Amino acid sequence: MDLSLSTRTVGDRTIVEVGGEIDVYTAPKLREQLVELVNDGSYHLVVDMEGVDFLDSTGLGVLVGGLKRVRAHEGSLRLVCNQERILKIFRITGLTKVFPIHSSVDDAVSATD
Amino acid sequence: MATVELRFSALPEHVRTARLVAAAVARRAGVDESVLDEVRLAVGEACTRAVGLHISNGVGSPVRVALIEDEKVFSIEVGDEAPGANGALVPGARDELPEPAAEDDEAEGEMGLAVISGLVDDVEITADGQGGIIRMSWPATPTPSVP
Lengths: 113, 147
What we know:
The structure holds 2 protein chains of 2 kinds. By secondary structure, chain A is α/β, with parallel strands linked by helices. Chain A is built from 4 helices and 5 strands, in the order E-E-H-E-H-E-H-E-H. In chain A, strand 1 and strand 2 (13-22) form a beta hairpin. The longest helix of chain A is centred in the middle third of the chain and has 15 residues, at 57-71. By secondary structure, chain B is α+β, with helices and mostly antiparallel strands. Chain B: Residues 79-109 are annotated as: Disordered.
Protein backbone atom coordinates (compact mmCIF):
# COMPACT_ATOMS: atom_id res chain seq x y z
CA MET A 1 0.00 0.00 0.00
CA ASP A 2 1.41 3.35 -1.00
CA LEU A 3 0.34 6.90 -0.42
CA SER A 4 -2.10 8.56 -2.80
CA LEU A 5 -2.53 12.31 -3.04
CA SER A 6 -4.90 14.47 -5.03
CA THR A 7 -5.83 18.10 -4.76
CA ARG A 8 -8.78 20.24 -5.79
CA THR A 9 -9.99 23.70 -4.91
CA VAL A 10 -13.31 24.78 -3.45
CA GLY A 11 -13.53 28.57 -3.21
CA ASP A 12 -10.42 29.76 -1.43
CA ARG A 13 -9.77 26.35 0.11
CA THR A 14 -7.53 23.66 -1.29
CA ILE A 15 -8.60 20.11 -0.49
CA VAL A 16 -5.80 17.57 -0.24
CA GLU A 17 -7.25 14.09 -0.38
CA VAL A 18 -4.87 11.57 1.17
CA GLY A 19 -5.18 7.81 0.88
CA GLY A 20 -3.15 4.81 2.00
CA GLU A 21 -0.42 4.75 4.60
CA ILE A 22 1.42 7.78 5.98
CA ASP A 23 4.61 6.60 7.64
CA VAL A 24 8.33 7.30 7.70
CA TYR A 25 8.67 6.13 4.09
CA THR A 26 5.70 7.91 2.51
CA ALA A 27 5.47 11.04 4.69
CA PRO A 28 8.08 12.96 2.64
CA LYS A 29 5.67 12.85 -0.35
CA LEU A 30 2.95 14.47 1.72
CA ARG A 31 5.44 17.05 2.99
CA GLU A 32 6.46 17.89 -0.60
CA GLN A 33 2.82 18.30 -1.58
CA LEU A 34 2.05 20.65 1.31
CA VAL A 35 5.22 22.69 0.73
CA GLU A 36 4.40 22.99 -2.96
CA LEU A 37 0.85 24.17 -2.27
CA VAL A 38 2.04 26.82 0.16
CA ASN A 39 4.79 27.94 -2.22
CA ASP A 40 2.12 28.29 -4.92
CA GLY A 41 0.04 30.51 -2.68
CA SER A 42 -2.54 28.07 -1.29
CA TYR A 43 -2.73 29.06 2.35
CA HIS A 44 -6.09 27.56 3.33
CA LEU A 45 -5.74 23.79 3.27
CA VAL A 46 -8.18 21.03 4.12
CA VAL A 47 -6.50 17.64 4.47
CA ASP A 48 -9.07 14.91 3.92
CA MET A 49 -7.84 11.83 5.80
CA GLU A 50 -10.87 9.61 5.29
CA GLY A 51 -8.90 7.34 2.95
CA VAL A 52 -5.92 6.98 5.29
CA ASP A 53 -5.35 3.45 6.54
CA PHE A 54 -2.35 4.15 8.71
CA LEU A 55 -0.82 7.25 10.28
CA ASP A 56 2.20 7.48 12.55
CA SER A 57 4.16 10.24 14.27
CA THR A 58 6.13 10.99 11.11
CA GLY A 59 2.83 11.86 9.43
CA LEU A 60 1.81 13.96 12.41
CA GLY A 61 5.12 15.82 12.12
CA VAL A 62 4.42 16.61 8.48
CA LEU A 63 0.93 17.90 9.28
CA VAL A 64 2.34 20.06 12.08
CA GLY A 65 4.98 21.34 9.64
CA GLY A 66 2.21 22.16 7.15
CA LEU A 67 0.26 24.02 9.80
CA LYS A 68 3.33 26.05 10.66
CA ARG A 69 3.82 26.99 7.00
CA VAL A 70 0.23 28.12 6.36
CA ARG A 71 0.13 30.06 9.61
CA ALA A 72 3.18 32.01 8.48
CA HIS A 73 0.83 33.34 5.76
CA GLU A 74 -2.19 33.82 8.05
CA GLY A 75 -3.60 30.63 6.57
CA SER A 76 -5.31 27.56 8.00
CA LEU A 77 -4.97 23.79 7.91
CA ARG A 78 -8.06 21.76 8.75
CA LEU A 79 -8.37 18.01 8.92
CA VAL A 80 -11.27 15.79 7.94
CA CYS A 81 -11.31 12.52 9.85
CA ASN A 82 -13.95 10.22 11.31
CA GLN A 83 -11.81 7.14 11.86
CA GLU A 84 -11.42 6.36 15.54
CA ARG A 85 -8.03 4.68 15.16
CA ILE A 86 -6.62 7.77 13.45
CA LEU A 87 -8.30 10.23 15.83
CA LYS A 88 -6.80 8.34 18.76
CA ILE A 89 -3.28 9.23 17.60
CA PHE A 90 -4.18 12.92 17.56
CA ARG A 91 -5.64 12.61 21.05
CA ILE A 92 -2.70 10.86 22.71
CA THR A 93 -0.25 13.38 21.30
CA GLY A 94 -2.39 16.36 22.32
CA LEU A 95 -2.76 17.46 18.70
CA THR A 96 -6.56 17.64 18.87
CA LYS A 97 -5.88 20.99 20.54
CA VAL A 98 -3.71 22.10 17.64
CA PHE A 99 -5.75 21.04 14.58
CA PRO A 100 -9.39 21.79 13.83
CA ILE A 101 -10.79 18.32 13.01
CA HIS A 102 -14.01 18.10 11.00
CA SER A 103 -16.36 15.26 10.18
CA SER A 104 -16.79 16.19 6.51
CA VAL A 105 -15.10 18.18 3.77
CA ASP A 106 -18.20 20.40 3.49
CA ASP A 107 -17.97 21.18 7.17
CA ALA A 108 -14.27 22.00 6.92
CA VAL A 109 -14.76 24.17 3.83
CA SER A 110 -17.52 26.25 5.41
CA ALA A 111 -15.71 26.61 8.75
CA THR A 112 -14.26 29.94 9.77
CA ASP A 113 -12.10 30.71 12.77
CA MET B 1 14.17 -17.58 22.30
CA ALA B 2 12.02 -15.24 20.27
CA THR B 3 9.17 -16.74 18.28
CA VAL B 4 10.13 -14.65 15.26
CA GLU B 5 13.16 -12.45 14.80
CA LEU B 6 13.56 -9.82 12.17
CA ARG B 7 16.67 -7.89 11.18
CA PHE B 8 16.39 -5.22 8.55
CA SER B 9 18.63 -2.58 7.01
CA ALA B 10 17.96 0.77 8.66
CA LEU B 11 15.88 2.17 5.80
CA PRO B 12 12.41 3.77 6.00
CA GLU B 13 10.93 1.44 3.37
CA HIS B 14 11.38 -1.61 5.61
CA VAL B 15 9.43 -0.26 8.58
CA ARG B 16 6.15 -1.26 6.94
CA THR B 17 7.39 -4.84 6.61
CA ALA B 18 8.19 -4.89 10.33
CA ARG B 19 4.67 -3.63 11.10
CA LEU B 20 3.03 -6.29 8.97
CA VAL B 21 5.12 -9.14 10.40
CA ALA B 22 4.60 -7.98 13.99
CA ALA B 23 0.83 -7.72 13.53
CA ALA B 24 0.67 -11.17 11.92
CA VAL B 25 2.67 -12.82 14.72
CA ALA B 26 0.70 -10.93 17.38
CA ARG B 27 -2.59 -12.17 15.91
CA ARG B 28 -1.31 -15.74 15.93
CA ALA B 29 -0.09 -15.31 19.52
CA GLY B 30 -3.64 -14.49 20.61
CA VAL B 31 -3.42 -10.73 21.02
CA ASP B 32 -6.96 -9.36 20.89
CA GLU B 33 -8.07 -8.11 17.47
CA SER B 34 -9.02 -4.74 18.94
CA VAL B 35 -5.42 -4.21 20.06
CA LEU B 36 -3.70 -5.18 16.80
CA ASP B 37 -3.89 -1.62 15.46
CA GLU B 38 -2.01 -0.48 18.55
CA VAL B 39 0.61 -3.20 18.13
CA ARG B 40 1.08 -2.19 14.50
CA LEU B 41 1.44 1.49 15.36
CA ALA B 42 3.71 0.96 18.37
CA VAL B 43 6.14 -1.35 16.58
CA GLY B 44 6.18 1.05 13.63
CA GLU B 45 7.04 3.96 15.92
CA ALA B 46 9.81 1.99 17.64
CA CYS B 47 11.28 0.88 14.31
CA THR B 48 11.01 4.39 12.84
CA ARG B 49 12.91 5.73 15.82
CA ALA B 50 15.58 3.02 15.54
CA VAL B 51 15.99 3.66 11.80
CA GLY B 52 16.34 7.39 12.49
CA LEU B 53 18.96 6.79 15.18
CA HIS B 54 20.97 4.47 12.91
CA ILE B 55 20.87 6.93 10.03
CA SER B 56 21.72 9.99 12.12
CA ASN B 57 24.56 8.16 13.88
CA GLY B 58 25.88 6.53 10.72
CA VAL B 59 25.35 3.04 12.14
CA GLY B 60 25.52 0.45 9.35
CA SER B 61 24.15 -2.52 11.25
CA PRO B 62 20.53 -3.65 10.96
CA VAL B 63 17.64 -2.84 13.28
CA ARG B 64 16.52 -5.86 15.33
CA VAL B 65 12.94 -6.79 16.11
CA ALA B 66 12.18 -9.76 18.37
CA LEU B 67 8.60 -10.98 18.60
CA ILE B 68 8.22 -13.11 21.70
CA GLU B 69 5.26 -15.30 22.47
CA ASP B 70 4.94 -16.32 26.12
CA GLU B 71 2.10 -18.10 27.87
CA LYS B 72 -0.12 -15.09 28.48
CA VAL B 73 1.99 -12.26 27.15
CA PHE B 74 3.13 -11.17 23.72
CA SER B 75 6.24 -8.97 23.72
CA ILE B 76 8.09 -7.01 21.10
CA GLU B 77 11.66 -5.82 21.50
CA VAL B 78 13.04 -3.30 19.06
CA GLY B 79 16.78 -2.84 19.39
CA ASP B 80 19.02 -0.19 17.91
CA GLU B 81 22.79 0.06 17.97
CA ALA B 82 23.05 3.82 18.24
CA PRO B 83 25.68 4.50 20.92
CA GLY B 84 24.16 6.11 23.99
CA ALA B 85 21.54 7.95 21.99
CA ASN B 86 18.69 6.75 24.17
CA GLY B 87 20.36 7.47 27.49
CA ALA B 88 19.07 10.96 28.10
CA LEU B 89 15.51 9.91 27.32
CA VAL B 90 15.22 7.01 29.72
CA PRO B 91 14.28 8.74 32.99
CA GLY B 92 10.56 9.36 32.99
CA ALA B 93 10.29 8.56 29.31
CA ARG B 94 7.41 6.17 29.87
CA ASP B 95 5.09 8.23 32.02
CA GLU B 96 5.44 11.73 30.74
CA LEU B 97 3.78 12.92 27.62
CA PRO B 98 5.46 15.96 26.19
CA GLU B 99 3.59 19.21 25.89
CA PRO B 100 1.29 19.31 22.86
CA ALA B 101 3.86 18.67 20.22
CA ALA B 102 6.10 21.50 19.16
CA GLU B 103 5.15 22.90 15.81
CA ASP B 104 8.20 21.68 14.07
CA ASP B 105 9.14 18.78 11.84
CA GLU B 106 12.03 17.98 14.16
CA ALA B 107 9.59 17.05 16.91
CA GLU B 108 8.91 13.72 15.20
CA GLY B 109 11.29 11.57 17.27
CA GLU B 110 9.80 12.76 20.52
CA MET B 111 6.30 12.36 19.16
CA GLY B 112 7.11 8.73 18.37
CA LEU B 113 7.93 8.09 22.00
CA ALA B 114 4.82 9.98 23.06
CA VAL B 115 2.68 7.76 20.84
CA ILE B 116 4.28 4.60 22.27
CA SER B 117 3.83 5.83 25.85
CA GLY B 118 0.24 6.77 25.17
CA LEU B 119 -0.62 3.50 23.46
CA VAL B 120 1.17 0.81 25.39
CA ASP B 121 0.67 0.30 29.12
CA ASP B 122 3.61 -2.02 29.50
CA VAL B 123 6.66 -0.43 27.94
CA GLU B 124 10.27 -0.31 29.02
CA ILE B 125 13.02 1.74 27.40
CA THR B 126 16.62 0.89 28.19
CA ALA B 127 19.93 1.96 26.73
CA ASP B 128 23.63 1.52 27.25
CA GLY B 129 26.78 2.36 25.32
CA GLN B 130 25.97 -0.25 22.69
CA GLY B 131 22.44 0.83 21.87
CA GLY B 132 18.90 0.91 23.12
CA ILE B 133 15.93 -1.42 23.41
CA ILE B 134 12.23 -0.60 23.50
CA ARG B 135 10.32 -3.51 25.01
CA MET B 136 6.53 -3.55 24.80
CA SER B 137 4.09 -6.19 25.99
CA TRP B 138 0.43 -7.00 25.52
CA PRO B 139 -1.78 -9.64 27.08
CA ALA B 140 -2.38 -12.67 24.88
CA THR B 141 -4.72 -15.62 25.10
CA PRO B 142 -3.39 -18.31 22.81
CA THR B 143 -5.90 -20.57 21.14
CA PRO B 144 -4.96 -24.14 20.22
CA SER B 145 -3.39 -24.01 16.79
CA VAL B 146 -5.22 -25.65 13.95
CA PRO B 147 -2.94 -26.93 11.23
